[in-house]
Design brief:
Layout (H helix, E strand, L loop, with lengths): L1 E3 L8 E5 L6 E3 L7 E6 L5 E6 L6 E6 L6 E2 L7 E6 L5 E6 L7 E6 L6 E2 L7 E6 L5 E6 L6 E6 L6 E2 L8 E6 L4 E5 L1
Antiparallel strand pairs: 1-2, 2-3, 4-5, 5-6, 6-7, 8-9, 9-10, 10-11, 12-13, 13-14, 14-15, 16-17
């Protein structure tokens, strides 16, 4: 699943591609930007963020593009959703209560949003570990983007990268023993 402006130069829509033959199908058709899609662990749903309601909200749709549902419906910007490995929770970034982003976790139906980071700098791009025990995230606490890791409840936040370049887009690799990122 991916975002593209191929059919709408004024926005981004979600598409799915069959890896066997490359056939692509459009999943969303909104007046805003739909981006950051991720498959649910069981493959039945896709979570993403969309500006279709005027500000970015977290949405979920069925894997065929039907039944879009706004999970956050909040006046602040909610972005960068990530499913927990069991599909029960979604981590996301939001600027609720501050001018910068923090990491939140909610149930997969949108209930019980809970802030798990609280820093005056931006914390964004959460990614669950394969075992669901930890979350990678990007922060600019040291003047540029670095990769951090924390327990899934927000405790034990540790810096993984430290250099003058921006380190972004972290994902778990090798069953959770390694981290791949852009720098």
């Amino acid at each position: 699943v991916f975002a593209s402006a191929r059919d709408d130069p004024d926005g981004l829509e979600l598409y799915v591609m069959n890896v066997d033959d490359g056939e692509q199908s459009r999943l969303t058709q909104s007046s805003g930007f739909d981006l950051g899609p991720q498959w649910s662990p069981d493959g039945s749903k896709i979570v993403y963020h969309s500006s279709r309601d005027g500000n970015f909200e977290i949405y979920v749709i069925n894997s065929d593009g039907t039944n879009p549902l706004n999970l956050t419906n909040h006046s602040s910007s909610d972005t960068r959703p990530s499913w927990s490995p069991d599909g029960a929770r979604i981590a996301f970034a939001s600027n609720r209560g501050s001018d910068t982003d923090d990491i939140y976790i909610m149930n997969s139906d949108g209930s019980n949003p809970t802030r798990i980071t609280d820093d005056p700098d931006n914390d964004t791009t959460p990614q669950w570990s394969p075992d669901g025990e930890q979350i990678l995230f990007v922060t600019d606490r040291h003047g540029n983007a670095d990769i951090y890791v924390m327990n899934s409840d927000g405790t034990d936040q540790r810096r993984l990268t430290s250099n003058q370049a921006d380190d972004t887009s972290p994902i778990w690799a090798d069953g959770g023993r390694k981290v791949v990122f852009s720098s």
